[in-house]
Design brief:
Two copies of one chain form a homodimer. By secondary structure, chain A is mainly alpha-helical. Chain A folds into two domains: 50 residues, Homeodomain-like (Arc Repressor Mutant, subunit A, Orthogonal Bundle), CATH 1.10.10; 136 residues, Tetracycline Repressor, domain 2 (Orthogonal Bundle). In chain A, helix 1 crosses helix 2, helix 1 packs across helix 4 and helix 7 crosses helix 8. The radius of gyration of chain A is 20 Å and the shape is elongated. The termini of chain A are far apart. The relative contact order of chain A is 0.12. At the A-B interface, helix 8 and helix 9 of A face helix 8 and helix 9 of B. Chains A, B: It comes from Streptomyces nigra. Chains A, B: Keywords: DNA-binding, Transcription, Transcription regulation. Chains A, B: This is TetR family transcriptional regulator.
Chain lengths: 198, 198
């Protein structure tokens, strides 16, 4: 009779799910595949994630959160110059997305499908996390007199939207083109000029 | 025996092609359908467009050029204030895309497929036309001392990229959301602050 392994954690299930997704693709991966990969019953998996949709949401969130975690350090370093941090943060976001797209294209394609399939809240929470980090940087800049922005949150969203081309997976194919780094730099320069106090 | 009607112009063929695409969708529309709609032989159509691909390219270009034509007037009014023109131009582009997406969603979906299918040159020429117009406005602004930009063409591309979310069909679903106009206005304000001479 299959029983829940004492070490079966949500994190282990999510790791296995990512592997199964990588191997079978998002269309074919099932909870039974995940359970088999872990050597447990599918009931054990359902004890942690009540539905297949919940499991997919959780694994997508985990993938998205990896980027958020990377950037949190830059956003949190409130002692440092806000302009430098804003540049670094945008460059780090672009670099993280490029790495995801090119180092593991199958997994990137899988998650690109999952982000359009899963509950919109997962993606919008991710975007709220990121724009929240940006808001913190803009607010620090306003407080130190480097930036001018009537509402740092509005300015942060504008900066995030303006750089869509350099983080939205829809544009992944553009990230390899010659000149993409120049385009990115020109855009960041323009946005920083827009934020800077005159 | 079918013969070429003396009034069979490329424009008439393209009009009929658009109707056929609207009716049958991009997957099913054929050159024979277009010829039938015009009451001519498919040979007559091929005399104007040598391949089905060439016909699809031409009809896509025509659809894209409608937007370019609308905006050319704003871009060309070099006597008027560059900042006002830049705002108007970006608003007109966003409005034109929204109209295309919502007034005739089937045709918009059809052309969204066609722009990803047809030779990339058609789309990149369209984008070059649009950024060329933007460059003219930025250059006028630099010449009249309103804007500062080391290279107006580079600044124009940055502005165009920054506003992708408000003209790239990929984001069409976002254009109906509440707050989209505020997001657009905040972004344009930020970009204009970035361009303005201090």
């Amino acid at each position: 009779m299959p029983s829940t392994s004492p070490t079966l954690t949500a994190e282990r299930i999510l790791e296995a799910t990512e592997e199964v997704l990588r191997r079978h693709g998002p269309a074919k991966a099932t909870v039974v595949d995940v359970a088999r990969a872990l050597g447990v019953s599918h009931g054990s998996v359902y004890r942690h994630f009540r539905t297949k949709a919940a499991l997919r949401e959780a694994v997508t969130k985990r993938w998205l959160d990896r980027t958020t975690g990377l950037l949190a350090e830059i956003a949190g370093a409130s002692g440092r110059d806000a302009e430098t941090r804003l540049r670094e943060w945008l460059a780090a976001l672009f670099a993280a997305k490029r790495r995801k797209a090119f180092d593991d294209p199958e997994l990137f394609a899988t998650y690109s499908v999952l982000t359009t399939e899963t509950a919109e809240t997962v993606v919008s929470e991710h975007i709220a996390d990121l724009t929240g980090q940006l808001t913190a940087i803009v607010r620090d800049g306003v407080e130190s007199g480097v930036f001018t922005a009537a509402d740092p949150a509005v300015a942060a969203v504008a900066v995030f939207r303006a750089t869509d081309r350099f983080h939205d997976p829809h544009y992944a194919r553009e990230w390899e083109r010659p000149g993409v780094q120049d385009d990115f730099d020109a855009l960041v320069d323009l946005l920083l000029r827009g934020l800077r106090t005159r």
